[in-house]
Structure formats: structure tokens, C-alpha cells
């Protein structure tokens, strides 16, 4: 389903503490499958390779947050962009480990834009790996941890989801699904 012949790296951002969830959110089960596996399934049709950023997961390549741990989703994004750039991959499609469902049409629109993030869930996005050093310098210099603010500062525009996206932050969110 890739929209071009250019490989895209899939990156599951999974380094958070899950403090609101109270346990390992990535391993939490939805319909008998860990949330992180749902995210991997969503990325698979669109990407040449998928990595997990910020934690280890069996059977998947692990990428570290950059420039250090505990910088939130932007640290995960920086790790993914660095990994892609080193491998010669021009774009990264990111998703949070707590996003078990994303409409294919939204991913198609994100990919068609070249670089964009979901206005409703900013960690879902398509990012040029050429921004790896810019993001790492931003974080190393103590810049804002907001994905949305950083993206807007880079001229990356939001794409709206046509319907609300499920996002699991608490056990209640998971139970609702």
C-alpha cells in the first residue's frame, strides 16, 4: 500500500512511563493482542521496516530516544528520525503505542502531504529524516517538548482526522474500546 517506491520507516513511539495507565501500556491487551502489536499492524502496509522507539519489544528492532531518555514523544521522534537518516530512509511514519486504530485514509493523506502530523494526535505523523539534527539540537537546548509546537516551527502542517481516534491513556479508555 506504500504510495511511492521510496521506503518509509515505521516507528512506534513507546518510551513513556504510562503513569496515568498504571502499568505497561504497550503490553496491555485489546482483543487479546498487546496495544503495541496493534500499532505495528497499522504501520505494516505503509512501511518498509518498523522499529520500536524508547523500549524493547520481542521481535522488533529497538531504537533509543535521542538525545537522551525521558524527553517525551519528541525524544522518541528524534530517535526515529536519526535511525532513518543513518539508514538512508527519507521519511518516517510515527504512531504512539497507545493508538490501536487509525483509518487508512488518514495515513494516506499524511503520506501524500510529504510531511504532516495528525492535529488530533500529533505523534501520528510523517516526518522527513533530514530534520533529525534540528530536532536533536532543539531538545538538547531545552526546547519545548510539544510535538505540535516543534512541527509548526518547522513548517509541518497538521492534518485533521475525519473521525475521533482512539487513544489509550487510562485503563478506563481501554475498557471503553
Give a structural overview.
There is one protein chain. With 177 residues, the protein is α/β, with parallel strands linked by helices. The chain is built from six helices and nine strands, in the order βββαββαβαββααβα. The strands form two sheets. The protein has a seven-stranded mixed sheet, with helices on both faces. Strands 2-3 form a two-stranded antiparallel sheet. Strand 7 (116-118) and strand 8 form a beta hairpin. The longest helix has 14 residues, at 73-86. The radius of gyration is 15 Å and the shape is globular. The two termini are 27 Å apart. The mean pLDDT is 92.
Tags for this entry?
single chain, 31% helix, two-stranded antiparallel sheet, Spore Coat Polysaccharide Biosynthesis Protein SpsA, Chain A
CATH class: Alpha Beta
CATH homologous superfamily annotation: Spore Coat Polysaccharide Biosynthesis Protein SpsA, Chain A
Shape: globular
Question: How would you classify the helix and strand content by structural class?
Answer: alpha/beta
Mean pLDDT: 92
- In this structure, how is the largest beta sheet organized? 7 strands, mixed
Could you state the order of secondary-structure elements as H and E?
EEEHEEHEHEEHHEH
User: Hey, roughly how much beta strand do the residues contain?
Assistant: 15-25%
The name of the CATH architecture is Alpha-Beta Complex
Low-confidence runs: none
Helix content: 25-40%
DSSP strand tally: 9
Strand order of the largest sheet: 5-4-1-6-8-7-9
Backbone CA Rg: 15 Å
Number of helices: 6
State the domain count: 1
- Compute the separation of the termini in Å: 27 Å
CATH fold call: Spore Coat Polysaccharide Biosynthesis Protein SpsA, Chain A
Amino acid at each position: 500500500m506504500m504510495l511511492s517506491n521510496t521506503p518509509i520507516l515505521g516507528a512506534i513511539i513507546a518510551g513513556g512511563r504510562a503513569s496515568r495507565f498504571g502499568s505497561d501500556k504497550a503490553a496491555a491487551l485489546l482483543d487479546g493482542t498487546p496495544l503495541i502489536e496493534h500499532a505495528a499492524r497499522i504501520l505494516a502496509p505503509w512501511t518498509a521496516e518498523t522499529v520500536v522507539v524508547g523500549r524493547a519489544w520481542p521481535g522488533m528492532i529497538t531504537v533509543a530516544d535521542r538525545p537522551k531518555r525521558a524527553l517525551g514523544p519528541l525524544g522518541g521522534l528524534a530517535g526515529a528520525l536519526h535511525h532513518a537518516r543513518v539508514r538512508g530512509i527519507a521519511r518516517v511514519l510515527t504512531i504512539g503505542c497507545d493508538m490501536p486504530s487509525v483509518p487508512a485514509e488518514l495515513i494516506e493523506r499524511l503520506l501524500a502531504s510529504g510531511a504532516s502530523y495528525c492535529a488530533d494526535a500529533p505523534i501520528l505523523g510523517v516526518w522527513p529524516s533530514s530534520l533529525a539534527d534540528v530536532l536533536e539540537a532543539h531538545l538538547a537546548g531545552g526546547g519545548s517538548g510539544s510535538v505540535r509546537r516543534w512541527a509548526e516551527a518547522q513548517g509541518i502542517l497538521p492534518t485533521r482526522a475525519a473521525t475521533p481516534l482512539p487513544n489509550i491513556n487510562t485503563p478506563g479508555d481501554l475498557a471503553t474500546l
